[in-house]
Each structure stands twice: as structure tokens, then as C-alpha cells.
Please model this.
Amino acid sequence: MGEETRDMGRKGTAANTGSFQFFLSQWSWSATIIVCALGLAATGAFLLAAPFLAGADPATVRADWLALACLITGLFTANMARMLQIWGPLATIIKKPATRRNDAERKRAHNGFRELFAYVFLALTGLTTFTFLSAQPGLLPWADLGLHGAGTADAKLAHVAALITCLALSFVPLLTSFWLHAKAEEEAFKRSVLRDDAISAPSFWVGAAILGSIIALAGWATKVSGNESAELASNLTLFVTLGVIALFVAFIFLPHLVRYLDQAGDKETGADKIATQGLNPIALPAQAASYLDSVLVRLIAPLTGATQKGRGVPHSFVLLSIIPLTGLGFVLAPPFGLVPIALGMLMVIALGRRWAWIEEDRETASRLLKTESPEIQVGFENDLKDEALLGYASLFLLVPLALHQTYGWQTTAFEITDASRASNLFFAWLSFFGAELAKAVPFVDWWEIYQVDLSPPIEAAADNPLGKHLTFAARAMVDLVIMAALLQAIGIWQRSRTQRKLYKAGQVDAFDPFLEEQFFQEGMRLTEGNFRPTDKFIKDVKEHADRAHKFGDLRLPYNERRLTELLEHEDKEVRAGAEWMIRAYDVLAGPPEKKLSLLADKWDEALMEHIGQEPEPGTPHPSVHAEWRRDEKPRIELVVDELLGKDRETVPKRLQDSDIRNLMRLLRYCDRHAEFHYARMEILEILAQSATPAALWALVAQTCPKWPETKAWVEEVEQRFGEIVRDEKGRYSPPYFKRQEERATCYSALGEAALLCDEFMDGHKSICEFLNLMKEKDAKTTAGPAAAAAYERLGCLVSPHAPVNGAKSPAIDDEEDVEPEFELT
Model:
């Protein structure tokens, strides 16, 4: 009993030791850093709370700045280390196209950086809550922290700086991860992190001219005196009319001017020299603006969380990003509240710019009919229309708060006209902004036409131009940003309706990526564990195919190139919809191997319809009519060309045994028809390069008739390919080459394939014996030397052997092709 106990103890100790070793093997340096950093943060939190514990003497244990430094450093370090942990496995997935990821990789890419956002939202919420609580006397044990106040004098700069530092540091891990993400995409998909063509030089200079004119006009208007103002009012209508006319004329001639300058630059002899210097004073500002735009799109916009995936996740993340910044902007003492407000506005603007980039990619993809291309800059992981509009909606809070913060800093910029209505400053500023919004929308001063007295409780001061400038900027933001976003959203909605209408009419055969995904998701429903098309989906697709056929196009349900990509789509409904279209409308789509399988299945179905009919003379199989063969000729040639690939040698080496069987199914019907001669020769080339035993026996089958001395090879061929090499009566009937020059090509292909097939070393002896037999059988034909040459090529691998059974059969006649006897008599 004692020995058993000791044995059990030893086994338990060994198991515990093994578990501990496994735990250590899984431990990493990043995990160590996280543990240490969290310990440092916990120490900082304890030091902050220590002076307020029962019995503690604040004079001896107080160390606020040390505690704050430990807390901030610990949390920041732990967050950075965790970011690197998440990025490690995600880096390889990002570099792989979405269509080539497996389910596990798709799930990890789907989760993305959600965990990091949780830390950021926790930090933002904590900072906002702490600041609000500090504004309530007696709620926190600390004395007045100076984070809240009506003016600059109420704030304590050191405390505010510490809070803003915490705010900035909370975004650094996310910024770093998005930079790494952008660099990985640049390496994998050639998407430049910093584009220099996002904003063209003409667009930049036209925009700069218009903006400069508006600013100059606003500055001039604030400086004119009373008499000058009256004179200006009398002539302003004329100036405005002439200015608008000049603007339209400028846009008419601007494209022609740019074209002329481009042509003139090409004719200059020194153009190449200037181009090599890389300095173009006209294009340089536009390039700088493009770089800034790239930073907004690739680094700042993702901070909102709009690029993350999941049902409701992007919308929630945008709100969780903006709301805490809005709260901080309200409660912080002026003008320091402008910092989180400016950050929120910057994130909203960046989100709008990323939406514009996505719409540009959307237009590009609609023309290229593919979603993976160097011309695609951002991709289609998220349609940011809803998120961008949600961000723009937050400006209706951020702008009044910015005015509120500015008033607390510059009290002479505005004046309160109704003290009773301005008792709650937040609602007073909302009322002020609402009045300006009413004046600005929709580009006509309806309030002035109908003499509506808006009477906001706050107005811009008459003797301070700052208030007027800020009011003008608020109105301009409504006109140029918010209204433009709404018009763009309406345009997108109208464009989607037009695409659906044209698809039903048979005029277009593909949608843009986002509408495409929506179309398939709405059309497929999960029923009893399988996705099935809805009646409306079937009706719409049929209507499109029928009308397209009337216009002279093929009767296809969707664009073949797009269906190929959709077979690898992340969404199950989309993949199922593409599969249904391919099956229902006999579409060749997908990778070459997929197309090969589809074509073989369709040919089997077509031939089954003709079973029982009399075969054509000299043909052991039933045959479909000539029109069908003419239609199928380009289809099989397309498939075999794609299998060979552009270099005509790398793709076939990936073929599996099932692919070889599918090729044999096609060869079975190519046997006797001249239309398929070219395709059959290319199939020989494919088999010659497919270094697999199945390819070798597929080549043997095409030169191996059923003779007594070929019994061993016939049995092997029948065992490997079964019904494929038998006719409808069960007789051995492979796709045999009757013409001697074709047999010669097949013998050469057999020798080449046998040399490539290293895994078939034991079978080389059998192939050598077969070639040795056939060189004697075809000795008097042009195929004999080819068989002999192939036999000699394999002679270095195996020792020559006599033909099977040691028998000889009469040689095939040299003058004419003789049909071999497939049945013994």
C-alpha cells in the first residue's frame, strides 16, 4: 500500500512538473511585461489611496505625483505589451487576401483590435467620470483638483496636463497597431501608407483659392466702417453675381488648362531632368495635403472603432469614442476642454475622409470587377456610410461645446442677450448653434425671407470679430461638410437603386462590393441547415439572365469573374448564393480546378441525356449534337488554358487525383470529335507536367488497348478510373489515340511525366515495360520511335525488362491507323 502511495505521489509530481513546464513554455516576454506593468499600476493606485486610509497620516504617506506616474506608466506599458501580443498572430493574417483565409484566420481578423478598444473606452470613461466627480465638492477625498471651472483662472495647469497626458497615452497603442496594420497592407497589397495622389494639384489650388477668398472676404467685412459697409451693401449683389459667373467659367476652362500644361510639360526637353529631381512647386502642396489626408484615413479614422467588425460594433464604438470626449469637452475648465473637442472633431473629419476613400474604391471595383487590386486603397471590410453620418451628427454637440469653451476663454467674443435663458450654458449654446443652423440650411436664408425672429440667448459681440468669425465657421461647417455628407449619402442610395434596376433589365451583370454583399445576403435564407434562395432572388436572377440573353449576351446570372471571387467570400450567405448561381445556370466560375469539376459534371449530364441513342459511326459512346460541341469547345479550352497557367508549367503540379479523374471524364468525350482536338493536346501537356501516379496512368490509358499482353495495364487503368474508362455496357473503352502522331505525343508525355514523378519510383518499372511493349507494337509507325525515346529516358532509373508475358503481337500497320480490339474474340 505504501509503495502504491509513493508511486502515485511520484506520478502526481511528474504530472505537476509537466504542467508547470508546459505553462512556462507558453509564457512569453510580453506576458511578463504585462504582469510587471499591472503590478506597477496597482502600486500607483495604492499610493494614491494610501493617504485616505483609516489611520494614515497624509503628511508622511502622500506621494501623488509618484503614484500617478506609476499608475500611468504601468497601464500604458501593459496596454502596449498586450497590443504586441494581439498583433503577433494577426500580422500574418493581414498580409493574406481575405478570400484565402481559413475560418480560424477569418475569425481572428474579424475580432481585430476589439480588446484594445475596450481598454481605451475604459480609460476614456474613467477620465471623464473622474473629472465630473472632481467638479462636485466633497465627493472625492482630494482637495480641489482644478479640472473644472468657469474660466482659465480656476484651472490648475499641472493637473490638467496630467489628465490630457493620460488621454493622449490611451490612444498610443491603437495608433501603433494601426500603423503596423497599414505597413503590413503596404507590403502585401502595395497600398501606400502615405499616398501622394489623394488630392490632385488642380483640386488643391482651386480649393485653396476658394477658401482663401472666403477668409479674405470675412476679414475684410469685419474691418469696414459704417459708411463703407453701406457702400459695400449696394455693390455686393453685383460682386456676388459676377463672382459666381467667374467661378463657373473657371471650372469650364480649368480641365482644358490642365491638359494644355501637361502637354506642354511633355514637350519640354528638360522634363525628364525636372522629374528626376522630384521637386514640383505646383504639385508639392497637393502632395503634402495628400500625406496629411493619408494620416487621417489610415491612422486617425480607425481610432473611432468604425473599422472594426461585428453586428452593431462599429456604431457602438463610434459612440463610445465620441461621447466621453464630448463629456470632457464640457466639464474641463476653458480653454483646456478644446483639446478633447478638437480630438473628437479630428476623428469625425478623418472618418468622413475614409468614407470618401472607400467610395472611391467602390467606384474602382465596379469598373475592375474585382476587389483585390493595387488600385484599391482601403478595401471593403466596412461600409462607413452609417458610421460617418453618425460622426457628423456628433458635430451638432461638439461645435456648441467648442463655442462654449471659447467663450469661457475669450469672454468678449460673445455676449448674452437673455440671461434667464442662458442659465444653463450648455442648452444656451445649443440654442445659439440651432439658430445659426436654421440660417444656414438649406443654403437659403428662409428665416430672413419669412422674417422669423429666432432670438438666440447668445449672440456674437459687435465689437469683437472673433465671435463673428466663429459664427461664420459654424455656418460654413454646416453648408460644406454636413450637407455635403447628406447629399453624398442620398447619391449613394440613388446609385444603389439604379444598379438594381439596371441588373433586372439585363444591362449590368455585377454590383459594387457593398450592394453585392447585400444582394446575396437578402437572397439566401438558412432553412433546415442549408442556404436556399428566396423566391424573389430566383425571380430577379432569372429576369436578369433572360433579358441579358435577349440582348445577345450569354444567359448568365452574374458576372463570371465576380462569381469566382464570391466563392471565397467571408460571408456564408454570399458563398452559398454564388454556388447556387453556378449550379443553376451552368456557369464556369471559381479556381481552375473548380471549373474543371463543374465542366465534367455538366458534360456527364449532357451525355446521360443521350444514353440509349445510337452512337456516331466508329464511336463507342453516345454523342451529343454538333451544335452542343461547338458551344462547349471554347469552354473546355478556357479551362485547360487556366489549368496550364500563364507560364504553362506551375499550375498543373497542384492537381489532385480527383482533378486527373475529371480530365479523364472530359477526354472520354473528346475522343472522336475534331472540335476538341486542341483541348486534348493541352490536356496531354497538363498530364505530362502533373507529377502524380494518377497522371501517369491517365496517359497509359490513352495508348493502352485491350490485348492479351496488356492485361496487367488494363486492369490497373480500370482499377484507378473505373467507369470513366468503360462504355455504357461496361466494356473497357478508354479515350484511345487512333492516329499514330497523336500516340507519339502521348508516349513523349508519358516519359516526361514518369521522370517528374519522384513518388512513383516503384511504378517506373511497370511504365518502362509498357513503353518497351508499345515501341515494338508501333515499330512500323511514327509512334514507335517516340515510345522508344521515352523508354530510353527512363532506362537510367530502372533496368530494362522484357514485355509482360514475353509475347509479341503483330505490329500496327505503318500506312493506316488500325482500331485496336477492345474485346477479345
